[in-house]
């Protein structure tokens, strides 16, 4: 029977979370908002519109949301040619694909950004499909991105594992009914990931690859 390995990308396979923190912080600063970096860090992983709402509140001027998102996109885009994969990212995807797992990416990135992330991972031969936030009505922590990934893989939730680095990932995976694996390379504490639903937590993709026999991928 087919099995699906669903992966978040930012902070899970590519070392981008702190770039997102810095560029969101600068986008907010340019618009006159002083948002602490630690608050931005904990919001990374939400879709852009949800991130802005989470950090500025529901009483903000929503007409400015698009400008904030555009500023972040432009600032972050300066790094597209040098995004670094996390240790073991490509090797992990290729090993799982070789073991018979259908590897699907579940990400809010699209277009040039998604292309840059995939170039960084350098494992297109192992990736069966990509589920983008553009394909669903609600992003993480809603379950739709993970559910869409399962549809692309043609695999039921009970035969899938979802790997991510944020509480939003863990909540999305749990709500979709899949087993969740957390990684610490996104910068969040183990306790936060476990509380949000992680069945197991590893340091990074390399650690998960080396420990796969004792993981939900066994």
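Q: What amino acid sequence fits the structure above?
A:
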């Amino acid at each position: 029977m087919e099995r699906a390995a669903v992966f978040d990308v930012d902070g899970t396979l590519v070392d981008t979370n702190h770039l997102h923190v810095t560029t969101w912080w600068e986008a907010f600063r340019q618009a006159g908002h002083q948002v602490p970096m630690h608050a931005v860090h904990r919001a990374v992983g939400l879709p852009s519109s949800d991130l802005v709402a989470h950090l500025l509140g529901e009483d903000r001027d929503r007409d400015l949301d698009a400008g904030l998102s555009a500023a972040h996109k432009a600032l972050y885009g300066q790094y597209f040619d040098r995004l670094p994969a996390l240790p073991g990212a490509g090797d992990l995807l290729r090993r799982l694909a070789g073991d018979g797992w259908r590897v699907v990416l579940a990400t809010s990135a699209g277009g040039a950004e998604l292309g840059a992330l995939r170039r960084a991972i350098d494992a297109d031969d192992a990736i069966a499909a990509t589920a983008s936030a553009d394909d669903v009505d609600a992003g993480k922590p809603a379950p739709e991105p993970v559910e869409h990934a399962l549809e692309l893989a043609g695999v039921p939730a009970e035969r899938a594992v979802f790997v991510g680095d944020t509480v939003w990932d863990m909540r999305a995976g749990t709500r979709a009914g899949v087993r969740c694996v957390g990684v610490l390379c996104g910068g969040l504490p183990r306790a936060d990931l476990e509380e949000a639903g992680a069945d197991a937590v590893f340091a990074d993709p390399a650690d998960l690859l080396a420990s796969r026999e004792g993981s939900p991928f066994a």
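Q: And what stands out in the fold?
A: Residues 102 and 153 are 6 Å apart (CA to CA).
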